[in-house]
Amino acid sequence: MKKRNKVERLNSEIFINAVLNGIGKVIKAQEHLNKINVFPVPDGDTGTNLAMTLKEGASVIKESRGLKLCEAVRRFSEALILGAKGNSGVILSQFFLEFAEYIKGKEYINAREFAEALAYATEKTYEALENPVEGTILTVMKDSSRAALKVSKKEKELIKVILAIYREAQKSLERTPSLLQRLKKSGVVDSGAKGFVLFLEGILEYVREGRVDLPEEIKPVEVKSEYIEQEELEHRYCTEAVVKAEGLESHKLKMLLATFGGSLIVMGAGKLFHIHIHTNWPQKVFELLKDKGEILKKKVDDMLEMNIKRSKGELGIVVDSTADIPLDMAHELDIKVVPLQIIIDGKSYLDGVDIGREEVIEK
């Protein structure tokens, strides 16, 4: 093990290498994180979403060497916003966005400032959520940032603060089943929270040992959740979009979108906004966003389809969306309706999901 000198401040070199090593930990564990994925829906992709979110940040931060700490963190956070996937990925992106905001203009920060930045980022991340749920990545962020504030009052060494953060994060992770009944029933800790703890573990490992272990090729791993049976979903589609808009405030956008579903997260950085929502009407969500600005990216995942893939039935009925079967009838009869792919002007759309019939006629 390489012996490290005492470090009392965080600069861009330490941040970049520590974060890359943290990303490596999450990448390697994505299969396990997928398997224990229970909350908010058991779609078996939390590990993949976190890995792919952090992959976007890794590609940018590698090119940020030599910059001030504030600039490296800003670039990293913006890359996460553009590439964020899934509930935990979006929350992590919001966290780094707020961290970047707190240290704006700083070439480096000391241990106390680091702890304060973490606490600020956590507080603002909670505020960005429609309904913050304890027993998740949020709780681990909150508990570990409080530990950082406490230790940084008497310790100047960065590694001692990071060690306190990691130890408290581990304890907080083990408490997640006591805070969420779904986790307790399935006998697992929260997947997103586990991913965050692994990320912290990688950061601590770099600060201690000075080495970076990041896979050269980062690929998604598709593994379904193993811990619960198929369940009824209140909202079918995990819907995400990145929007570029002038003069748009995130809290107002949140109010407009709240009626369309749950698990709503709206985060913004300047003119860029990343929206995550579970809804039955992704098309309506996109229509509203289109009225507010330019949609740069959009994605829709059918969570019902993911649930059906775990069912043990031997016989299935599959039709495409031209059959025009009502959604409630399809659910009742266990019919899988596959949205027809429509290509207009070289762009691909899913019938009834991110494009409606009226819009097809217009185009």
TrEMBL record:
Pfam family, one: FakA-like_M
PROSITE patterns, sorted: DEGV, DHAL
UniProt keyword terms in alphabetical order: Lipid-binding
Alphabetical GO biological process terms: glycerol metabolic process
InterPro entries to which the protein is assigned, alphabetical: DegV, DegV_domain_contain, DhaL_dom, DhaL_dom_sf, FakA-like_M
Domain annotation DhaL: ranges: 13-205
Residues spanning the signal sequence: none
Coiled-coil regions listed: none
Gene Ontology terms for molecular function: glycerone kinase activity; lipid binding
Annotated protein name in UniProt: DAK2 domain-containing protein
Originating species: candidate division WOR-3 bacterium
